[in-house]
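Query form — protein Response regulator receiver domain-containing protein

QUESTION: What is the three-dimensional structure of this chain?
INPUT:
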Amino acid sequence: MKQILLAEDEEVLRMLIEDTFEDENYMIDVAADGGEAMEFLQNNRYDLVILDYMMPVYTGLEIVEKIRHAETNKHTKILILSAKSQEFEQKQILETGADYFMAKPFSPLKLLELVGDILNENS
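ANSWER: The structure tokens for Response regulator receiver domain-containing protein are given below.
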């Protein structure tokens, strides 16, 4: 089964995404900030990491950089969620090492569809 880490500091959105994914039988670990996300990353391997761009402790981009420079989780697919959706911001996110970008607000079902596509690429 594919392992997913979600790091999102907005509680309602985090719970909505978690419930949506659990309803589809995904294995998902959930972090409320960048610090918790880093703890999960140090102790687990993930097929996909979904990161909010703006979080306390570490931002999504800081976590992307740490993932890409570490041996573990180096080849993990990374999806950034952000309300910062202008073209130059998306370019910066992808140049930092994220594989995918999704602008907020979004439909949880669209996120689920994108995640399904991402994880099926790796099968």
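ADDITIONAL NOTE: The mean pLDDT is 91.
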